[in-house]
Specification:
Radius of gyration: 22 Å
Number of domains: 1
Largest sheet: none
Structural class: mainly alpha
Order of helices and strands: HHHHHHHHHHHHHHHHHHHHHH
Number of helices: 22
Strand content: under 5%
Helix content: over 70%
CATH topology: Proton glutamate symport protein
Length: about 425
């Protein structure tokens, strides 16, 4: 039966969200940037407006997602023993994923395909870049301490007004936990309001995403007109390094579940194959959660309560694949700009990527990349360049990234269970 509501849904321009529409926008932008440079100059303003639209939604989504998820977790009064084991699993997983991304970036060297002239053009266009023109040792000596101090906001309202993402994340985590410990009806209502606001901001952002192909078109037209196509050659190597790293994590997760549950070595992959197909098709960890919880219960005999708690929580605060990707992307941009991070820079990349990935779980689609500023800005690297470049390959990386995220949380669920049932 065709109702007015169903006709409205059918009329929605969902084709604008397809990978083909996004790719068409990127290609058209490159053509304009190369062939019609004068036109590309006029597109600078709409490009800035598009980036502003994305950034407008990022902070509200982060705030509402983190506060609501953490307050809901604490309010459930889960046993301390289980939470301690789960915390160890989550923290170990995040640290391991960040180290894997670091090793992959150092060994794969995805950002070293550019010659010096290309780097010079990019640097002149984007940034008043002073890292190499100053004393690196003196700058680096206080780099990590400034980063750590910046995690705790002395003035929360100032942090929000200035867009200090790391400080905002720290505040939201602390506030969400505190809200969960308040056992009053007002606290429960506040948590529900946060969830409602999160849904509203998600809806607002879904509207913004309908202009993504056009936004990428004007962004690439503006950027390519200044720097040419040389820099995009490095993305081919970056995609290859990313795929190999994701495959390594996939094998590692399968091995952990097999070691924990027993049975055939490929049983975890077979049991979760439906979940992987949903993840590849939707590129959404949230949309994949129901399938993951059902497959864990029915195919791997995981306790229902454990699966229903760990999977939703893990999707929010344990995005191992995204942590790996953010570290790898940071190494990419540092290598493109020929910047040696040093020990303190590496520590910022590792710690910052964990916080950034946790904050980005509530942000849909390519906008998750905008939170890379948490990591890149303290290192003096141009976050805008990273966002533009990584948006171009998001249709190729995001489905695989979703599979890694959901498989990592399925593994965490199996490891956190008290008495695993060996089949």
């Amino acid at each position: 039966m065709n109702t007015p509501e169903s006709k409205t849904v059918k009329a929605s321009p969902h084709w604008l969200l397809s990978p083909w529409a996004i790719l068409a926008g990127v290609v058209l932008g490159c053509v304009i940037g190369i062939k019609y440079k004068s036109l590309a100059e006029y597109l600078t303003i709409p490009a800035d407006i598009f980036l502003a639209l994305i950034q407008m939604c990022v902070i509200p989504i982060i705030v509402t997602a983190v506060i609501s998820s953490l307050s809901r977790l604490v309010a459930r009064r889960v046993s301390g023993r289980f939470l301690s084991r789960l915390a160890v699993v989550f923290i170990s997983g995040l640290i391991f994923a960040s180290l894997v991304g670091l090793v992959a970036g150092v060994l794969g060297r995805p950002g070293e395909n550019l010659d010096e002239s290309a780097r010079a053009r990019i640097g002149q266009m984007i940034l008043k870049y002073e890292v190499e023109a100053t004393n690196k040792d003196s700058a680096e000596s206080g780099q990590l301490s400034v980063f750590l101090k910046g995690m705790v906001p002395a003035n929360v309202f100032k942090a929000f007004s200035q867009g200090q993402m790391l400080a905002i994340l720290f505040f939201c985590i602390a506030f969400g936990i505190a809200l969960g410990f308040v056992r009053t009806s007002a606290a429960r209502v506040t948590s529900l309001v946060m969830e409602a606001l999160y849904e509203a901001f998600q809806k607002l952002f879904s509207w913004v995403m309908y202009v993504l192909p056009f936004g990428l078109c004007v962004l690439f037209a503006s950027q390519v007109s200044h720097m040419g196509l040389t820099i995009f050659k490095t993305l081919i190597k970056f995609i290859g390094v990313f795929y190999l790293t994701a495959f390594f994590l996939f094998v590692f997760y399968n091995t952990l579940i097999w070691w924990r549950r027993g049975g055939g070595y490929f049983q975890p992959v077979i049991a979760l194959r439906e979940t992987f197909l949903v993840a590849l098709g939707t590129s959404s960890s949230y949309a994949t959660m129901p399938s993951a919880m059902r497959c864990l219960r029915e195919k791997l005999n995981v306790d229902k309560t454990t699966a229903n708690l760990v999977i939703p929580l893990g999707v929010s605060v344990h995005p191992q694949g995204k942590v790996m990707y953010f570290v790898l992307a940071t190494i990419l941009i540092a290598q493109v700009y020929n910047v040696s991070l040093g020990f303190q820079g590496i520590m910022i990349a590792l710690i910052g990527s964990i916080f950034a990935a946790m904050g980005a779980t509530g942000i849909p689609g390519p906008a998750t990349l905008s939170i890379l500023a948490v990591v890149l800005t303290p290192l003096g690297l141009p976050a805008q360049t990273a966002v533009i470049l990584l948006m171009a390959i998001d249709p190729l990386t995001n489905p695989v990234l979703t599979v890694v995220n959901i498989f990592g949380n399925c593994t965490a669920t199996v490891l956190a269970e008290e008495r695993p049932a060996v089949r």
